[in-house]
Amino acid sequence: MGRSVLVTGGNRGIGRAIAEEFADAGDDVAVTYRSGEPPAGFLGVQCDVTDAAAVEAAYARIEQAQGPVEVLVSNAGIARDTLLLRMSDEDWTSVLDTNLTGSFRVVKRAAKGMLRLRRGRIVLISSVVGLLGSAGQVNYAASKAGLVGMARSIARELGSRSITANVVAPGFVDTDMTADLPEAKKAEYLNAIPLGRFSTGEEIARVVRWLASDEAGYITGAVIPVDGGLGMGH
Questions:
Q1: Is pLDDT of 94 > 90?
Q2: Ramachandran region of residue 174, left (φ > 0), alpha (ψ -120 to 50) or beta?
C-alpha cells in the first residue's frame, strides 16, 4: 500500500518533480498550489501556506481522501530579491511568512497525525543560499537558513515517536527561470559549480524520496546538499 504524501508547492518546478517521484514509487500524493491549475494525476488542493485556516482546510481534505499525512515535503516558497537598503519590511515579512512560518504551519499540522501513527517523515526544502548567503537575498537566505534550525529541533522533539526531520538544500536547478538568465550570468554561476552544470528537478526529487524511505530511517536532523559541490564545507 502507498503512503499518504503531501508536497506543498507541488504544481511546478522542484515540487512537481518531487510529487512525480513519490507517485512513481506507488505513494498517494497530494499537492498544494496557490494559483493556476494543479498537475494531473495528483490530489490538487489549493492552499496559501500563509493562511492558517487554509492549511487546516487542506489537511482535512487530504486526510479524508488518502488518510493522515505520513510524508510531508515542505517546498512552497517565494523570493523577493533586492539589495538590503532597498528591501522593504513587506519584502522581508512576505518571504519569511511563506518560506519559514508557512513551513511551521504545515509541519505542525502534519505532526498531529504522525504522532498518532507513531511514524512519519518530514523533509524541508531549503537552499544552498541558506548556507552560503547571497547578496540581494537577505530575506530569502534567512528564511532558508531558519529551516535548518526548525528541522533539527523537530528531530529532537519528535524522534522518540519514529518521526524524522531532514533538510534538502538544492543549488541551481535547471528551470524556466535559470533558462532565461543572460548567458554571461549563467556562465558565472556554472563556473562556481565544481560539476559545471545545473541540477535537474529529478535529481533533487530522488534525494527527497530516499530520505523518506526505509533506507534512510536512521537519518534525522541532517542537511543534505544537492548542489554540485557549490556549497561544500557549509
A1: yes
A2: beta
Is 191's pLDDT higher than 80? yes
Q: How confident is the model at residue 190 (pLDDT cuts 50, 70, 90)?
A: very high
Residue 159 has a pLDDT of 98
Give the mean pLDDT of 16-23.
97
pTM of the model: 0.95
Which distant-in-sequence residues (6+ apart) come within 8 Å of 174 by Cβ?
198, 199, 200, 201
- How far the first Cα of the chain sits from its last, in Å, is 38
Phi, psi for 18 (deg, rounded to 5): -65, -45
**What domains can be seen in the chain, in order of their start residue?**
4-175+201-226 (3.40.50.720)
Catalytic amino acids?
A: 140
Calculate the average pLDDT of the chain. 95
DSSP-assigned states of every residue in the chain: ---EEEETTTTSHHHHHHHHHHHHTT-EEEEEESSS-PPTTSEEEE--TT-HHHHHHHHHHHHHHH-S-SEEEE---------GGG--HHHHHHHHIIIIIHHHHHHHHHHHHHHHHT-EEEEEE--THHHH--TT-HHHHHHHHHHHHHHHHHHHHHGGGTEEEEEEEE--B-SHHHHTS-HHHHHHHHHHSTT-SPBPHHHHHHHHHHHTSGGGTT--S-EEEESTTTTTT-
β-sheet bridge partners, residue 123: 73, 166
The confidence score (pLDDT) of residue 233 equals 74
